[in-house]
Amino acid sequence: MKRRVVVTGLGAVTPIGNTVPEFWKGIREGKVGIGEITKFDTTDYKVKLAAQVKDFNAGERMDLKASKRMEAFSQYAVAAAKEALADSGIRMSDEDPFRAGVIAGSGIGSLSTVETEYAKILQGKVNRVNPLMVPRMISNMAAGNISIQLGLRGKCTNVVTACASGTHCIGDAFRAIQYDDADIMLAGGAESCICPTGVAGFHALTALSTETNPLRASIPFDKDRQGFVLGEGAGIVVLEELEHAKKRGARIYGEVVGYGATGDAYHITSPCEDGSGAAKAMELAMKEAEIEPSQVDYINAHGTSTHHNDLFETKAIKSAFGDAAYKVIINSTKSMIGHLLGAAGGVEFIVCVKSIEESFIHQTMGTVAPGEDCDLNYAVGAPVEKSINYALSNSLGFGGHNASILIKAYKTAE
């Protein structure tokens, strides 16, 4: 028998708020966190906008000395993890640390570290390279630093599947608890690569929007969409075995009831044109939950604002949901906070949980007129007040990685 898994803690650092309450307030207000890039001089770049984290002070969120040994993506991860653990009410002094673990991913790690240290090499200053270059740079250090800072000694890994990393991390943490590898798992993703290399690299792929109006830069499913907006931040959640949570009287936000993971085996950057890979991931999540498509109330789409993603994800939803595709409400949080890459799935999972809690589905901001063959209900024009029993979160990553995770409203009578 698989053990039941519930959500008991939430933590986030985002372009519209550096805690979950601040972030969710921004979501409810329809705030867009996109603006001019200030991290470097964009004079020679066609891309001028990004969704940056603002007013984040690592020393206020964790040990100052430890924070100085971390790059931004790890700082965001630790800050979000500490918030999530505090929110859960778990006291690690009361727990077996080997039954509490972390799976937190980053699609890239720190490009900024690579830039800074490689510049020294080019200047003939090989002996000046920072001794901490490697541990600051590598993507597993989000999970490693969370483990160290919070004393989590159980399973400690990271899943790196580009933009699907956060969702795969939560899915794998869900599995770890289901199959008794742990009682408590912190899971999600973190990212910070708004830097010259990051922007130049994604722009060279023609993946980024060159729009200069922040309110029309990230417009998922819109007929005028032209690319995604690079974002940064972290989303970390606490997953817990149901009986463990009940025993300590935890507040339960919701229950994770299904997880699907597939590969397109198609193309390194484009989703499969018929959406079959993403569709199968959704189907697997619903099959595990033993529900029909008509029972899903809300989908938080990957919805990047690129032509291919939005069109092919729409096809995938139609394939997986059939006639029910036209009834389910869909939105994209990336319309407000840009694309957080490896952190996107973690933050969007939190949006699903809060949407269930408050019966509120945010508007897909900036989107005005859905494009050709994008003919589903994308919450355009206004948010939706609706009771939600099941919410599905989708993430798709370069390399053909697809992940879908299904969350159910938790009822104490169950």
CATH architecture descriptor name of the largest domain:
3-Layer(aba) Sandwich
Structural class estimated from helices and strands: alpha/beta
Percentage of residues assigned to helices: 25-40%
Identify the quaternary structure here: single chain
> Any idea of the CATH topology of the largest domain?
Peroxisomal Thiolase, Chain A, domain 1
Dominant shape: globular
Beta strands, count? 14
Helix and strand sequence: EHEEHHHEHHHEHEHEHEHEHEHHEEEE
- CATH top level of the largest domain? Alpha Beta
Q: Give a quick account of the main beta sheet: strands, pairing sense, barrel closure.
A: 10 strands, mixed
Strand neighbour order, sheet with most strands: 5-4-6-7-1-8-14-13-9-10
Number of helices: 14
CA-CA gap between termini? 17 Å
Instruction: Estimate what percentage of residues fall within beta strands.
Output: 15-25%
Report Rg: 20 Å
CATH-wise, what's the superfamily of the largest domain? Thiolase/Chalcone synthase
Mean pLDDT level: 97
- As residue ranges, the low-confidence spans are none
Q: What is the number of domains? A: 2
Structure, described:
- With 414 residues, the chain is of the alpha/beta class.
- The protein has two domains: 5-247, 3-Layer(aba) Sandwich (Peroxisomal Thiolase, Chain A, domain 1); 258-406, Peroxisomal Thiolase, Chain A, domain 1.
- The chain is built from 14 helices and 14 strands.
- The strands form three sheets. The chain has a ten-stranded mixed β-sheet, with helices on both faces. The protein has a two-stranded antiparallel ribbon with strand order 2-3.
- Helix 11 (276-289) packs across helix 12.
- The longest helix is centred in the first third of the chain and has 17 residues, at 72-88.
- The model has no long low-confidence stretch (mean pLDDT 97).
